[in-house]
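Give me the fold.
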Amino acid sequence: MLDHAKSLSLANFDLHFLKQVPGVIGIDEAGRGPLAGPVCAAAVYLDQTFFKSNWFGEYAPEVNDSKQLKEATRERLFDAIEDHGRELIYTSCHMVSVQDIETLNILGATRKAMAMCVKDLMAQSSCPFECVLETEYLPSLPGASQELLFKNSSRKSSARVLVDGKPLKPFPYAHTSIVKGDGKSLAIALASIVAKVTRDRYMRNQAKMYPEYGFTSNKGYGTPKHLTALKTIGPCKLHRMSFLTQILS
């Protein structure tokens, strides 16, 4: 169902920032809450050219927070971004493993995925995003504090970085946090779709190896079927053991 009023509201939110900078980058994640599987983040760069494009006119009325969309709509929009949005919608998506989730905790792993996405956008030769960092990403070391993962940066960039949720501390890119931003910013909403569809497709593929847990439908979340399988046959290598303490006790 097309919602032109909603799309206009999402677009106007981003266009406000485009009065100040050449581009906006929306960042969102998928998979913070599941019992199994990686966490996935995506970043989407948009500029004035996008908002004047045929893509915007055709598809933007369908865009919303990915959780509010039917799976078929998310999949169609994802394919439209991939197939028709090139040179208009610059995207980057990264998944961070269960091992990193266990080492860094879910917040640290999510920040790592998000930082990788922004860095990847900057590395794309066709994407006009530029930012001078005070420090590069610091790889985690065994036993290292989570605070060593990143150092904050206040350097100016050619885009306003909009992150769904609360401020990321620390984080190597100056950013604006937007609570429930996937329902306010078109760039964040697009990022939420990219992250959600990418992770869902990954979990459906993993379900071929681990059919007992119902990953095709639950994507790693704690549904009754999933919980029953955990208590009956135990966890697999995709499970986040730190999330299962009470369930398996």
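Residues 134-149 have pLDDT under 50 and may be disordered.
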